[in-house]
């Protein structure tokens, strides 16, 4: 299998499909779809193919820390986007993302406790998440915006997986849920549709973290017992079911 070819074809396809989903079904549904493990799943797969199954399983603990940092990113970007343009908003959000990741990595919590904290944090974030005010601005589109999104996301994935051996499983895991797709969706929705669209998209993403977190959590147990395809397939179905329930509740 040519792993590099997989990296440069899979990620652009995912970004394009999620962008089209947002255009068809709206920001909230698009955010929920975007929260699925389209990025983290392939990154975990690349870790396993390049570094081994043990490395991939070990990285999942770090992924829980990364998800907490991702929640911090989404909440801060949604909040700051009301008053600031995309550049200061993204810089502040990345700053809070990094601080959250460093803090929880320092605590070195076990997997079960980390999972419980992430689920609780998602529920709290949904409760306190900013609400859109007024109407969404009609969608504007930049020329060739989908190819631009595809290139940015692919470069992120190549960088993270390329640094995996140097970073080790802990920080590789933390970077697995790095807001690659989230950054692309947030900046483009903020720039083209305004803060309300960004808030709706990011709230959908946070809602989807209930299933996304469970997907990664299950890999810590499934990968040691089953093949990669079966492990991912079982967890993906669970992820979809949780997202369906979450979309009904919130």
From TrEMBL:
Keywords: Membrane, Transmembrane, Transmembrane helix. The chain crosses the membrane at residues 6-22, 29-49, 55-78, 85-106, 112-129, 150-168, 174-192, 204-222, 228-246. The keyword Membrane applies. This is Uncharacterized protein. It comes from Spirosoma pollinicola. The lineage of its organism: Bacteria, Pseudomonadati, Bacteroidota, Cytophagia, Cytophagales.
